[in-house]
From TrEMBL:
This protein's name: Type II secretion system protein
Domain of life: Bacteria
Signal peptide: none
Residues passing through the membrane, by range: 6-23, 101-123, 129-147, 331-351
Keywords: Membrane, Transmembrane, Transmembrane helix
Organism annotation: Microbispora siamensis
Amino acid sequence: MITTVLCGAVLGLGLFLLMRALFPPRPGLTARLAALDEARDGKGVPRAPLIAPEEDVSEFRRMLGLRLARFYAARGWEARSVKADLALLGKSFEGFLATKLLLGVSGLLAFPLLVGWLALMGWGVSVQVPLWSALVVCVIFFLLPDAQIRRDAAVRRRDFRHAVGAFLDLVSMNLAGGRGVPEALMMAVAVGSPVTTPGALNGTVNSTVNGTVHGMANGTVHGAVHGAASAGTTGAANGAGPAPGANWAMERIREALANARIVGITPWQALGQLGDEINVDELRDLSAALGLVADDGAKVRASLTARAATLRRRELAEVEGKAGERSQSMLVAQLLLCAGFVIFLSFPAAMKMLGA
């Protein structure tokens, strides 16, 4: 009786969700008026992304992802954190949604496989066991891309913040040299860029750029900026392109600054938009500070140097914290090993005493 009620409830819920998906509710009058106000003020106009995704998606996955993206947009599911992580990794939101759906559907294949295996083994197990197992596998497969994207984006965001700290020092040095804001940004982002030179056939060009930045922030701060851009390229008759081992963070900033002229915004606004796209607060702060320099002529060179020093201190604190966690985990492992060894030595004597 309970099983029948549960199956009926699941079936009714599925039909309800299907009807809601096929026939979405109309937005109310308040929502429509708010949308009109945003469109009139220019707040609701979508901005063109400064960085194009680098992922190659098949036609089937792209079409499926577009439909799923429209489904998300129709229901107001923005998924900002996921989009920021995907933009940082150079992947498309449509391909991510298609991957999630295909993995979830493939998890349902565990049901016929389990049923066939149980029938082959001759075990009299109810069909509910492989059914619930297949549902659990489906949910796990559906959530796997989220976990992978979140883990990879955390690593990339940490590396990007490290590059932003060096970028802040370089911008403040160029501002101190008398350059304007656009020139300071372009000169700063040129550090770590791969060198493109004409080469002969099967030629290899290796270029290493090593810079040292000395900043003053509450004392003397020596920050070594290693813009090691190894542009190992195979030379064609007319030259070669950038190598895949180049400084990817500087490449992202350089691409955003180059596309700012096409989009029609200032370079510091492009940095702020890039910070919004990949969820890096340091780029937003840099955009606001450089906007003050361009608009009001504010002196922010010392502030930029202090922010770079703060970034380095925070990174050093994070590294020290992770080192302490690993030391504690190693200590726990050693204690467990010692406890096992003590049990191994005392077990024979204890058994003899109990037997006597």
